[in-house]
Amino acid sequence: MAGMRLAALVTATALGAAAPGDLGGGWRAERGDWVWTRDVQPMLLQRASQGEARAVRTGMEAERNVWRCVVEPGLGATEAGFAFACDEELSRGIVVELGGSEVGGFALRTAAGERLWEDRWGPWQAYEAYVLEGVLEGSRVRAQVLEADRKTLVSQSDWIEAPPDSLVRSGCVVLHTRDSRARFWGVEAGDQPLSPLTDDAPNNRRLWQGPEGDWHVRGPGNWMWTDGTRTRMRQYANTERAWATYHKARGCDRLWRSAVRVHAPAGGAGMIVKSDDTAESGFIIWLGGTHGAGCLMIYRLPMEALWASAQDKWHYDEDLILQAETQGAQIRARLLAADEQTVIAESPWVPLTEEEGRREGCLAFHTWLGSAEFWGFGQRDE
User: Fold this and answer.
1) In this structure, are 243 and 182 located in the same domain?
2) Rounded distance, CA 44 to CA 208, Å?
3) What is the DSSP letter of 64?
4) At a CB cut-off of 8 Å and minimum separation 6, what does 299 contact?
5) Number of domains comprising the chain
6) pLDDT tens-digit profile of 87-99?
7) Range of the domain at 168
């Protein structure tokens, strides 16, 4: 599917001839390489991979309070979104856009470039469609992004007071990209947002990371707490590999433990002990092997197998306990049932190097080819 989408983004054929700048359907190209293309329905394709691109439409219902657009970013996209309550030159207006970080990002800003709100870690994937929505209420604005089903909320801002003179009720919409190919359709104005404002928005449950945070997330995963209690963490994205490092759990000679549940059709999941801050080194206690009926394994990262149990020790949607003990220059692992007493599989003591035995590290988590949950994690001295 991704290959088909890439071909569509790169080689799409215009649906009809248009004068330079005139795209038809009320749209006018100002910058970039815009054409009409068709998938399920006609849509605008911006084909230039470098520079800023804009397409403008005027004459929409100026007094509407909700503005939305479906955006499908191409591979390597950095910014793709739309402006509303704006003028044609984008000297005034509000922009809702995908982009801003190595894992995605979602932002609300003024047309002049002032960032009003940002979910830096908001996840999105190339060649997937997202509904971007901007909402007006007097001089307040908010933004949200949903999956293509128009029901599943991905990220949502609070109400933000717009800077003075940043809004203009013009009935103008501007599609824009920066260094990005993208497709756009479903541009419309209305009065009811697709999702109400909620305290349980996914971005409020995403792992707290950054210089002041407890976590470091690597890869295109979507790591969130499953609810507002912040006791159970899940990697939701159906992505190849994703890592999350928990800086607060650290040690050398320790008992490390986490509950885990692997969701179908994931290939595996596990915890990393004595990890560095990016989860690129350490020892991973891994549920791998046969998908959904596999084995307990110990790996030395990046990819050296140290030990493996027999198959058929773990299964999808089963609550299990992963446990590792590090003592001096050795490590051993156990897989326990949810009662924390029944031993399903256990390794012998596996030798490490003397340097590895002395090295401290932190706790991390890894998923492969799908989703898994972790909870009750930490370190114990007993």
Assistant:
1) no
2) 36
3) -
4) 283, 284, 286, 305, 306
5) 2
6) 999 999 999 999 9
7) 2-190
